[in-house]
Design a protein that fits this description.
three-stranded mixed sheet; alpha+beta; Alpha-Beta Plaits; 47% helix; 93 residues
Length: 93
């Protein structure tokens, strides 16, 4: 299986202004599932990626707290999967 970085390099997406929001969202939910398997897509009410920051709103404050405590690990996992310093911060409400 090819890595996401190789596919992005072939399409020159990473050189032409960054990765789109849907790609970051997909990788975010993959990292979230790996780090916190009890949290699913239904627990995240909104997701936005802008200016290298992820903004997320959750269904419950306890879920936001779990994500906030693991935000550095999530950020590192996302950046590792994308092969670039795509995400600088994760903000959760």
């Amino acid at each position: 299986m090819k890595s996401l970085k190789n596919l992005l390099d072939k399409k020159n997406i990473s050189r032409s202004g960054g990765v789109d929001e849907k790609s970051v969202e997909s990788v975010f939910f993959g990292a979230l599932q790996k780090e916190l398997p009890n949290i699913g897509r239904a627990d995240i009410q909104s997701f936005k990626f802008k200016d290298k920051k992820i903004f997320s709103r959750t269904a419950h404050p306890a879920i936001a707290s779990d994500i906030w405590r693991r935000r550095e690990r999530l950020k590192n996992e996302i950046n590792h999967k994308l092969g670039d310093e795509t995400v600088e911060d994760i903000r959760v409400k």
